[in-house]
Structures are given as structure tokens and as C-alpha cells.
Amino acid sequence: MNDTAQKLLAPGKGLLAADESTHTIVKRFGALSLTSTPELNRKYREMLFATPGIEQFLGGVILFDETVHQKNDDGITFPEYLTGRGIVPGIKVDEGLEPFNGGGEQVTKGLEGLSDRLKKYSELGLKFTKWRAAISITDIFPTDSFLQENMERLARFAKISQENGFVPVTEPEILLDGNHTSTRCEEISVKTWKILFEKLKAENVDLTNLLLKTSMVLPGKGSGVIPAPFEVAQVTLRALKNAVPAEVFGIVFLSGGQSPEEATANLNEIIKDKGDSPWQISFSYARALQEEAMAAWLGKDENVKAAQELFLKRLTLVSKARNGQL
Ligand code: 5MM
To answer: Pocket residues for ligand 1 (CB within 6 Å)?
Structure first.
């Protein structure tokens, strides 16, 4: 497991989250008037993964179940293809959200049969797993009981993953929707992470072989406030130091609806300010890495080259930010 963790966050490298579930890829393609089908999804992911040069910047790619069974145009499965390029393939194993206690919040499901699924994923060459919990901030949410249940499931996922030899990426995503302040986001982030690490400890999860995938501490989108990168860095690092144990192998940020430019600049500042933070810090972006390439591709073969150039360009910038070199 440690070999996988080291590879994922090797110097200058981070993760590409390409694990959009069916619902999410339908939404992303729909915004560009494209209709998602398994074949169009396959072509899109082939465009991304075949981009020349990405192995310099990507330690791993998170895949969705549909993708791990698909092959590229040369008949090679995507996990094999990525492995051949020195990029570690991983898999999203949660099964989306379900209502929690009828109160309006939604917890993540997917623990049932997880161990059996992991055995099959292991045979397909996958080395790490991801589970996303989504946490909304409103005047009344998140409730304590919701956080307890959701973090408990996240910790169970991590335990079962490690028992099967996978490095777990635990993702409690604090959603950007809403008009809350950065202070409220900090309060909820710290509370969420503290509960998560209590639960991980109770499950005896090895933190040295675990990644925390998290949101940056930001004001809600509806607040209209766009903080300067140095403010994002200061409050995010303060919150992390308050709640995340030093043994955790690495922290990777999601982009969460920030623009590619914002997600790049904020990461750069976090790295520049991280001082003696004990963890490796890197990226695990979906939208911020893919947005420009997807819009250039538009499902057309003749656009593949231009889309790949944009993808590589953004990845190069995000990798520089991961080193605090912008
Ligand atoms: C790619 O999206 C991932 C899966 O989400 P769904 O279950 O909603 O399809 C998601 O977990 C993603 O890895 C993170 O949210 C990071 O993506 P962004 O776009 O926030 O960087």
C-alpha cells in the first residue's frame, strides 16, 4: 500500500478525478449539448488518458466502474493502459447518495458487498479506492447525527479498503453551494474532519496509508465573495492543522466548482504557505482539470488534439502549483 501512496503523490504529481458517475457525466456533457452514452464516455476518457506527457504530472487517475471495464481503441483496458504509462489506476466505490432520516440530508451508500467488489477490482489491476461524502452547509445543516453516520461510513470504507490492500482516498466534500461565510465553512470543515478522524481511529485505520481528499475552505458561491488566494491558503491550512493528524500520508484537494484558474492559484498559495505542515499536499481535481478540454473536444474526433493540448496545459500549471512554483 505504501508503494501506491508514494506513487500517487510523487514529486510534482497528483490525481485526476475522472470518476464521474452516470448521473454526473450526463450533467457535464448535457451542459455542452452532448448526450452521454457508454461509447461517448469511453471516447472522452480515451482522449484524456491518451494525452501525451500526462504521466509527468499524474500519479493516479480515479475511474468509475463503467470505465474500468472499457478498452481503448487498441483493445487495452483503461486500467492496463494507465498502468503501462506509469499512472496508478483507482476506483470510486461509493454508490451515490441516499436520504438520511427523512430530514433532507443525504448520506453516501455502498458498503454492502464492498469487500467482494474490491476483490474483483484487485484482479483488474486497481490499486486505490475513493468514497465521497457530500456535506451541504445551510442555516440548519449539517446536523450532528448526519455527520456521525456519514463519517462512520467513510471510516468503514477506509477500513475495508485497507483490508483488501487498497489505499483509501476519503473524500468528505463540503459543498460550495450556499451563501455561507468562510468562517462557517471553516467551522464545519474542522468539525467534519475531527469526526472523521475519530471514526478512523475507532476502526484502526492506518493513516500512513490514507489520503484525505477535501475541499478548500471557501465562502459559499452564493455569497458573491471570491477570496484572495492568500486568504484561502491561510484559513484552509489553519483548519487542517486544527483537525488532521500528522500521520496522514497526504491531503489532496478537490476543485468543487472553482474555476480552473482559481483552483490553480489557490493550490499554489496553499503550497507556498504550508510551512512545516506534516503531510504531502497535492490535487485531485475533476472539473478544474477537465473543463477546458471537455469544452474544446465537444465529442468530435477532429477536436481531440486541441482538447489534449488544453488538458496538458492545465495539468502543467496545476503541477507547478502543487510545487508552489507559479
Ligand atoms: C468526478 O466526480 C466525482 C464523482 O462524483 P459523483 O459521484 O457526483 O459523480 C467526485 O467525487 C470528484 O472526484 C470530486 O468532487 C472532485 O471533483 P471536482 O470537480 O470537485 O474537482
So the answer is: 17, 19-21, 24, 92, 96, 132, 171, 173, 254-256, 285-288
Query: Maximum distance among all alpha carbons in the chain?
Result: 53
Which domain covers residue 20, as residue numbers? 2-322
Active-site residue, 247 included: no
CB 186, CB 217: distance < 8 Å: yes
Decide if 264 contacts 296 (C-beta within 8 A): no
Most ligand 1 atoms within 8 A of CB, residue of 19, 44, 154, 216 to mutate: 19
The beta strands (E) that lie in 199-264 are given as: 211-214, 250-253
**Could you tell me the distance, in angstroms and rounded to a whole number, from the CA of residue 286 to the centre of ligand 1?**
6
88-90-95 Cα angle (round to 5): 175
Selection from 128, 133, 85, 141 nearest residue 108 by Cα: 133
Is 50 a residue whose pLDDT tops 90? yes
Reduce the DSSP state of residue 292 to 3 states and report it: helix
Q: Hunting for cell 466534500 — which residue is that? A: 173
Ligand 1 atom 14: residue of nearest CA: 254
Instruction: Locate the ligand 1 atom nearest the alpha carbon of residue 285 and give its number.
Output: 21
pTM above 0.85, yes or no: yes
What's the number of domains the chain is made of? 1
Torsion angle of the four alpha carbons 61, 209, 176, 291, in this order, in degrees rounded to the nearest 10: -10
213 is catalytic: yes
Among residues 175, 119, 176, which one has the least CA distance to residue 150?
175
Cα-to-centroid distance, 301 and ligand 1 (Å): 25
214 within 8 A of 193, measured Cβ to Cβ:
yes
- The CATH number of whichever domain residue 290 belongs to comes to 3.20.20.70
C-alpha 267/C-alpha 142 separation (Å) is 26
Quick: pLDDT tens for 80-113. 999 999 999 999 999 999 999 998 999 999 999 9
Mean pLDDT computed over 267-296: 98
Residue minimizing CA distance to atom 8 of ligand 1: 24
